[in-house]
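Deliverable D5.2: sample structural annotation.
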Amino acid sequence: MPFRQSFCSITLVLLSLSFFSIGKTKNDNKAGHAKIYIYRVGQFSSAANNYTIFIDGEQFCKLSNNKYILAEVPAGVHKVSAQLGFSVFKKEAEVEIDAKEDTSYYISCYVKTGLTKTNFKMLEVAETTARLQMKDLGRDNCRD
């Protein structure tokens, strides 16, 4: 009986420790870098348009509907921006991230449609929210 009780206790402790490492966002990328996940949950209103994503003013990727991208950046302040559309109809949004080493950040891109106007938004979200929203998304192949 004591062996069974000890075995169950050890198993329980090991299982508990494994659950803590599943959602880990620290120390799982290049040393000294942060990960920025930028994602786009499918919306019918802008499904045909790709969002052009910029990091610190340089074009990084074109983000498709129901996709996410991953950018690894050095620690420090970074501006992540996006454009939807072109010329006269261009809409822009921006988020500033103060990236810490070995940490992950999540940015949601979406279009908010109102009665009289449409707003293009980017929002930094918590990891738990992002993981729920990203669970069915695929990684984008970043067309230019």
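Annotation notes: Residues 31-139 form a domain with the Immunoglobulin-like fold (CATH 2.60.40). Residues 106 and 131 are 9 Å apart (CA to CA).
The annotation will be released with the project's public dataset once the embargo ends.
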